[in-house]
Specification:
The chain is an alpha/beta fold and 393 residues long. The protein folds into 4 domains: 82 residues, GTPase HflX, N-terminal domain (Rossmann fold), CATH 3.40.50.11060; 65 residues, no CATH class; 167 residues, Rossmann fold (3-Layer(aba) Sandwich); 52 residues, no CATH class. The chain contains 14 helices and 11 strands. The strands form 3 sheets. Strands 4-5-3-6-7-8 form a 6-stranded mixed beta sheet, with helices on both faces. A 3-stranded antiparallel beta sheet has the order 9-11-10. β1, α3 and β2 form a beta-alpha-beta unit. The longest helix is centred in the middle third of the chain and has 36 residues. It starts with a helix and ends in a 6-residue tail after the last helix. About 3% of the residues have low confidence. Bound molecules: guanosine-5'-triphosphate and magnesium ion (MG). The site of magnesium ion has 4 residues, from α7.
């Protein structure tokens, strides 16, 4: 509820009351019970509230029923988060992705919205024979969803070219992930000297950003910052941002940033991990846990507990810079351990493996011998397994 209040304020609302109901099960028709609705109506009346926000995604019929029972606009957590995303999206791709999510939220909730939507399609004159207004509205929205998907995927093709170029340059990618407001953008600024927008509000960042930075010893890597996670992140947003999120998880290492000053930080770790696992079941292997905002917590016993529970975690303050040097060492160690250097005698018949090696490995030299290629390359453990029969040393 605390978080819902923050979300509401981020969206520009002023919170006047909070109401909680304990029930064995949700009311299927109205989400909350009859008595609670009366209590809620009285509160709405007393404050002349304009809006009631539910901390969950309501079914289309629940919204409709509640809308009739309560003298205020009824919205749910999903709708609120979509609204915040719509305000915050700046890039073309981000805006299209948010609109796609909004349309997907809207489609099953069209009943009862009356004539509002027909304007999208021009209203009179666009209706096919025998179609009702509702069918027209649905058709307009479905078409918009298809158009949005097409537009997003054509933008992505363009981006894919940039990615290939990066692979060829053999640059490691380090992605910052974490709960919203954990300090990802602040850390990106500290690591790269960038000047990204940071704010003590939820979802300050939506659009992915990539910046060059140096590790200790001068090795150059690419750091990426993107949208944060939250509990009950709307599934429509996950679908719309799927490609962006997959790209995020596909980095060489994820820095999982945790706001140590947040009372629920342990739960937030679990929430972020479950989102990441849903995007890519294999992500666990490549995460460095980073406890941030240590300047705010004076908890020596807490730190002892954390060092025991999370022995390889880093402790930093992105704001003061404390611990950033040793975080860079963590990253360097991690990347060095991840790839192994191999000398290979690869038969000419292994064309497919060779192209895989060129695409994903770090090929240092190739010499053509009479019956094989002599290759020196650094590869990840997975590729090393495949190449095992051809390892010379
Ligand atoms: N005291 C303190 N504040 C920090 C630290 N790191 C970040 N902050 C503050 O925390 C707030 C959120 O930081 P951001 O960098 O915007 O967080 P984010 O993870 O990018 O958040 P979203 O983009 O909204 O998901 C800002 O007000 C920062 O100044 C830190 O180490 N110490
Ligand atoms: Mg940010």
């Amino acid at each position: 509820m605390e978080e819902l209040a923050l979300l509401a304020e981020t969206a520009g609302a002023k919170v006047v009351e909070r109401l909680i109901q304990k029930r064995e099960a949700l009311d299927p028709a109205n989400y909350i019970g009859k008595g609670k609705i009366e209590e809620l109506s009285a509160l709405v009346d007393r404050h002349s509230s304009e809006m009631v926000i539910f901390n969950d995604e309501l079914s289309p019929s629940q919204i409709r029923n509640l809308d009739q029972l309560i003298e205020a606009k009824v919205i749910d957590r999903t709708n609120l988060i979509l609204d915040i995303f719509a305000r915050r999206a700046l890039s073309k791709e981000g805006k299209l992705q948010v609109e796609l999510a909004q349309m997907q939220y809207l489609l099953p909730r069209l009943i009862g919205l009356g004539n509002q939507l027909s304007r999208l399609g021009g209203g009179i004159g666009t209706r096919g024979p025998g179609e009702t207004q509702l069918e027209v509205d649905r058709r307009v929205i479905r078409k918009r969803i298809n158009d949005l998907k097409k537009e997003i995927s054509s933008l992505r093709k363009h981006r894919a070219l940039h990615r290939q170029r990066r692979k060829r340059n053999r640059q490691n990618i380090v992605s910052l992930v974490g709960y919203t407001n954990a300090g990802k953008s602040t850390l990106l600024n500290a690591l790269t000297g960038a000047d990204l927008y940071t704010e003590d509000k939820l979802f300050a960042t939506l659009d992915p950003t990539v910046r060059r930075g140096n590790l200790n010893g001068g090795k150059e890597v690419l750091f990426t910052d993107t949208v944060g996670f939250i509990e009950k992140l709307p599934k429509q947003l996950i679908t719309a941002f799927q490609a962006t999120l997959e790209e995020l998880v596909a980095a060489d290492v994820l820095l999982h940033l945790v706001d140590l000053s947040h009372p629920e930080y342990l739960r937030q770790i679990e929430i972020v991990r479950s989102h990441l696992a849903a995007i890519d079941p294999e992500y666990y292997g490549h995460e460095i846990l980073v406890f941030n905002k240590i300047d705010l917590v004076d908890a020596i016993s807490e730190k002892a507990f954390l060092r025991r529970e999370f022995p390889s975690a880093a402790f930093i303050s992105a704001l003061t810079g404390e611990g950033i040097g040793s975080l860079k060492e963590n990253i360097t160690d991690y990347l060095n351990n991840q790839r192994c250097n191999l000398k290979l005698y690869l038969p000419y018949s292994e064309g497919k493996l060779y192209s895989e090696l060129q695409q994903y490995g770090d090929v240092q030299s190739v010499i053509s011998r009479p019956d094989h290629l002599e290759i020196i390359a650094a590869v990840d453990p997975e590729l090393a397994k495949k190449l095992d029969p051809y390892i010379a040393s």
